Amino acid sequence: MRILINCLTGRIDVFLCTKSVEVASLYENFTDEERNKLAVHPKPLISDVFYYIASKKLERNKQVILKFNSGLKELKETGRIDQIMKEGGR
User: Fold this and answer.
1) Which of 4, 7, 58, 71 has its CA 20 to 30 A from that of 77?
2) Alpha carbon distance 52, 54 (integer Å)
3) How far, in whole angstroms, is CA 19 from its chain's centroid?
4) Angstrom distance (rounded) from CA 19 to CA 3
5) H or E segment at 5?
6) Is 11 helix (H, G, I), strand (E, B) or coil?
7) What is the separation of C-alpha 4 from the centre of its chain, rounded to a whole number of angstroms?
8) Structural domain span for residue 2
9) Sign of the C-alpha dihedral computed for residues 22, 50, 82 and 84 taken in this order
10) In this structure, are 54 and 77 located in the same domain?
11) How far apart are CA 24 and CA 9, in angstroms?
């Protein structure tokens, strides 16, 4: 949050951050007037990649992996993954 204050007061002009974290901080800690003084660039510098890792050796994980893959397939087929990525600015 300190970096946002520094940006609002003109001590810094630009900074890198995770969009979701800083946007949440803006809405939790700053007024509409303060938020309107800042902008988030629409194009990310990097895209995060997330992985789900589970040991196949553990019997209970076999079912979890099947459920996860099934849910992920459904999200992809319905276009929900694309929608989430678009909403996240990626």
Assistant:
1) 58
2) 7
3) 6
4) 13
5) helix 2-8
6) coil
7) 18
8) 1-41
9) negative
10) yes
11) 19
